[in-house]
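Researcher: Before we compare anything, I want clean individual predictions. No alignment, no superposition, just each chain on its own. First chain goes here; please echo the sequence and then give the C-alpha cells.
Model: Echoing the first chain and its structure:
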Amino acid sequence: MNSLFKALNDPTRRQILELLRVQSLTAGEIADSCQVGKPTVSHHLDILRQAELIEEERQGQFRRYHLNTSVVEDVMVWLSGLVEAPKPAAKKAAVALKRLKPRTSP
C-alpha cells in the first residue's frame, strides 16, 4: 500500500495515469504528452509498475502501457470503508444473527 501512495504522490505520475485512463501509450508518447524527457518517464513508469497501477505489454519493439483498473478499484473499496461508519442497527443485526446461527458439533 505504501508504494501505491508513493506513486500517487507525484503530479507527473498522476498525469500519466490520466493519460492511460483514455488509452494505452508507449513511453515516447507519454514523454511527448507530459513534456518531460524519456529517462524521467521511465523512472515514473517504474514507480507506477511497482505500485501495480499500470501494466506493460510488448508490441514488437515497443512497450505499451495501460492502467490497471483492478488495483484502482481495490483502493476505492478500501478508502470507502474508511469513510463509511458502521451503522448501529447493522451491528446489532450482525450480533443477533451470530447468536441464531446453529452450532455444529465436532
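Researcher: Okay. Second chain, same rules.
Model: Second chain and its structure:
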Amino acid sequence: MKNVTVKFKQTKDTTIFFTFFLLTLLCSTTFLSAQNRPNVLIMLTDDQGYGDLGSHGNPYLKTPHIEEIGKQGLEMTHFFSYPNCSATRAAILTGRYPYRTGVTGVTQVDHFMNTSEETLAEILAKNGYRTGIFGKWHLGDNAPMRPTDQGFQEALVHKGGGIGQAAGPAGNTYFDPILEHNNESKKYKGYCDDIFTDAALDFISKKSDQPFFTYLATNLPHFPLEVPNEKVDPYRKIGLHEDNARTYGMIDNIDANVGRVLKRLKKLGIADNTLVIFLSDNGPRHRRTKNDVYPGRWVSNLRGTKTSVYECGIRVPFFVQWPKKIEKSQQKSTMGAVIDVLPTILDVCKIEAPQHIKLDGKSLLPLWKNEKTDFGDREMHYGPTVFKYMHFAVRTQKYKLVSPHDDPHHILYQPKDEELKEVLANLELYDVENDPSERINIAKNHPEIVENLLARYENWFDEVTEERDSKGIQRIYLGNAIQRSTNLSQFD
C-alpha cells in the first residue's frame, strides 16, 4: 500500500475548521476530566456551637442526620472557625486568613472581602463545576462583592448578616422572606431554611454532565429566633429557657433539612461521588447583658461565646463524608481550621491552586485517608479586631495564648504605653490538651511559652496587616453596568 499525502490549501475556511476542531477537542478533554471529579457540598450553619449536637453530650438535642455524616465518614473534634461569621466565610472561600482578604468584622465595611481574592467558587467554575450558593453570604451586598461577582453562577441569598437586619428590606422575617435570586429581589413562601434547602436540592438535582459545588449556608440558628412553633414546643415542654427552646427548634429544623439533602444524594445515585462537609461559622451567641450564653445552654464545658477567642467561640462541629474514599466512623483530634477547607477541596478534586495565591491552609485529605502526615508545631491565629495585641489568640495543638476582652466590638483604638503594658501583662496561657475548658491560667509558670507564642503572633499580625493595608478597603461600584441600582445601608 502506497503512502498517501494529503495537502490542504490554507484558506480562511480550513483555518476556521481546524480552530473549531481543536477547541472542541480541548473542551471535550476538559469536560471528561470534570465528569470524573467529585461533587462538593458544604453545609454551613450560623451560630451553632460545639455543644449544639446530641453527640457532644447535649441532653436536650438529637441531631441524627448531622451525626450521620460523621458515621459515614469522620468527625474532626478540634476544628476551628473564627469568632465572627464574615471572617469564617472569607476563610472558607479563600483558604487564607481573613485579615489578608480585608475581612475583620461583620459591619461597617469590615466584612467587605477584597475582590482580588480568588474564591473556591471561581476556581471550581474555571475547572468545569456548576457553582451555587443558598443562604448567607455576608461578604458585601453590592457590586463587585456579590456572590455572582465572585464565582457563583446560581445565588439565592439574603442581604447583610441576617434576615431582618438593616441591609435587607424593612420588615423582612424568616417566614415568607424577600430574598435575592441572582441579584433580583423576590418574595418567597415558606420558612427561610426550607426555602434555601429546596433551592439547593433543585440545583443538585439538575441534569448536567458537570459536577457541582453547592454551598448551603443557612442563616440558622442566628437571631432573631424565628422558628415554627411545632419545632419549639418539645423544648418548651421540658422547661428550657425560651431562647434555648427556640434555638434548639432551629437546630432541629437544620437537622431535618440535612436529612433531606443526604436522602436526595442517595436517590440520585451520587452519594458515593459527593464530598459532604458540615460545619458552623462560630460559637453560640451571648446574652445581651453578659459575655455568657443563655442560661441552661449546653456548651460541652467550653469557655466563652460567639465573638470570644476562648474555645466555645471558635471550636465548632465538623463532619465530612466521602464514601469509598474515607473510612467510616473515624474521629480525628488533630487541629484543623476553616482556612483548610479550600486547599482540601482542591486536593480532593485534583485541582492545583493558582500559583499567585498564598494559601494559609493545608490539605486535610492525607489525614482523612490515614496517610502519613506531618503538621508539625502548627499554629492558628484568631482575633476579631484590627488592633494589635487586643483580643487575639494563638493556638497550637497543645497550648493557647489568649488576650481576652469582654466586649471586642467596642475596641476602638490601639492601646499605648501603660494600657499596652497592662494588656501584655494579663495575657493568659492554657494547656488546651489537658485543660480544654481553659480554667487554669499557666502563663506565670511558663513565661518562655508565652514569649514564643507572642512572637509568632506579632510576626503573623505584621505580615497580614501589611497585605491588607496594601489593598485598602474594597470599594462599591456606583453606576456600573453590572449593577445599575445600588442600595446602601448602614452595613455599607
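Researcher: What stands out in the second chain?
Model: Residues 242-267 form the longest helix (26 residues). Additionally, The longest strand covers residues 39-45.
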